[in-house]
Design a protein that fits this description.
It catalyses: GTP + H2O = GDP + phosphate + H(+). By secondary structure, the chain is α/β, with parallel strands linked by helices. It has two domains: 88 residues, Up-down Bundle (Four Helix Bundle (Hemerythrin (Met), subunit A)); 190 residues, Rossmann fold (3-Layer(aba) Sandwich). The chain has an eight-stranded mixed sheet, with helices on both faces. Helix 7 packs parallel to helix 8. The longest helix has 27 residues. The radius of gyration is 42 Å and the shape is extended. The termini are far apart. The protein binds guanosine-5'-triphosphate (GTP). Guanosine-5'-triphosphate (GTP) binds next to helix 7.
Length: 392
């Protein structure tokens, strides 16, 4: 009996072990049904994979018609030419800039002249103010003398009267009767262009002035050629070419370190051939004390004149250098017969009196003034607008 019980127990245990072994194996061998596929088994919705499964119906291959001729290469668009601002009335636009820079000078004078008692001390202060503004000794003495006389004879009742008096006397000194027109008309008799030679010491703003002047002329519908006769500084020719390119003006240039006279000659020749109205020639900056360089400048002018006389020699002076500008004016005037002065950087100095001083020194008028670094910040000089700018 005991034996039977043991056999039954062993059979039960073995059976249970066999069942435990077989059931999980069968479960592991089951193949799970594949999940429904978006785009195949049902319409895809939010959160479904966006890419079409490989089983998705394929797009059939279609024939595409090719154009008969290959497409023409696309030309890079030329930069649009700038339209410079007309020159007329520019000084009026720039007057506030002039007034800002000269405010110390103008306001100082007006408040001194408006004092109740104009004693010797006040007149001395007026004199000092004028000298500080670079008016020069002789013009200062003349002006003070005239103001004193008129104040004594006519009397100065109020600030308005002081302003009127000062305006009249400053205007007389600046001299509105001087001919400040630039000679930039083509020569009718032989069809030659007008030639403008631009000279001055280093860094006064010659190249910038030539570039700005080209814009003034383009605004007046003149045809212009530029000559980059500053062959010392390679960047000067690049700078000038950029100015020209902006308004569609051609720049004639030579090799770096080449003969400036030959570049100037070629520029005028190109101007004659292209029948332009004006040729503007930029020259290298040179100190008035360097005899060799000054002789070279004389040569540039003589070589250009093989084509015919130069119409304008513009001396560019930096207004911030004050009295030193007068020395430059004297020496340049001896070498090249200056016909007009360009006073640059008047926006950066309160020494507007230099206009009078330099006109006296050279006996030639200020024709243009620079009042900023912007491309259209060069203005034809206008005596009235200038004096009004000084007085604010
Ligand atoms: N604020 C101000 N800056 C000016 C004016 N005119 C010229 N400049 C600046 O003066 C600097 C010198 O100008 P350039 O034209 O290169 O002078 P440059 O006389 O040709 O110089 P070099 O070739 O070295 O003799 C530049 O930074 C100009 O922008 C002006 O009227 N006002």
């Amino acid at each position: 009996m005991e034996y039977i019980v043991i056999v039954v127990a062993v059979v039960v245990v073995l059976g249970a072990a066999l069942a435990a072994f077989l059931i999980p194996r069968r479960r592991r061998g089951e193949v799970a049904a594949p999940p429904p596929r978006p785009g195949v088994d049902y319409q895809p919705g939010v959160g479904d994979d966006a890419t079409a499964p490989v089983e998705a119906p394929r797009t059939p291959i279609r024939d595409v018609e090719l154009p008969e001729a290959p497409l023409a290469p696309v030309e890079p668009e030329a930069p649009a030419l700038e339209r410079p601002e007309p020159a007329a009335g520019r000084l009026v636009r720039l007057r506030s800039r002039l007034a800002r820079s000269q405010s110390g000078f103008g306001k100082g004078l007006l408040s001194l002249l408006s004092r109740e008692r104009l004693d010797d001390e006040t007149w001395e202060e007026i004199e000092d103010t004028l000298l500080t503004a670079d008016l020069g000794v002789t013009p200062t003495q003349e002006l003070v003398e005239r103001l004193r006389t008129r104040a004594r004879v006519e009397g100065i009742q109020d600030p308005d009267a002081a302003r009127t008096l000062l305006r009249e006397e400053l205007l007389a000194l600046v001299d509105p009767s001087l001919d400040r027109a630039l000679r930039t008309d083509r020569h009718l008799e032989d069809g030659r262009p007008a030639v403008v030679l631009v000279v001055g010491v280093n860094g006064t703003g010659k190249t910038t002035t030539v570039g700005k002047l080209a814009r003034v002329l383009v605004a007046e519908d003149r045809d212009v050629v530029l000559g980059a006769a500053d062959t010392f500084r390679a960047a000067a020719a690049d700078q000038l070419t950029t100015w020209g390119d902006r308004v569609g003006v051609v720049t004639v240039r030579g090799p770096e370190g080449g003969d400036p006279a030959s570049v100037a000659f070629d520029a005028v020749k190109a101007g004659i051939e292209q029948e332009v109205d004006v040729v503007l020639v930029d020259t290298a900056g040179r100190l008035q004390t360097k005899v060799g360089l000054m002789d070279e400048l004389g040569k540039v002018k003589r070589v250009i004149e093989k084509h015919g006389p130069v119409d304008e020699v513009l001396l560019v002076l930096d207004a911030t250098t004050g009295q030193n500008g007068l020395v430059q004016a004297r020496v340049f005037g001896e070498v090249v017969d200056v016909t007009g002065i360009v006073l640059t950087k008047l926006d950066g100095t309160a020494k507007g009196g230099i206009v009078v001083a330099v006109q006296r020194e050279l006996g030639v008028p200020v024709k243009l003034v620079g009042l900023g670094e912007g491309p259209d910040d060069l203005a034809p000089f206008d005596a009235e607008a200038f004096v009004d700018g000084i007085l604010g």
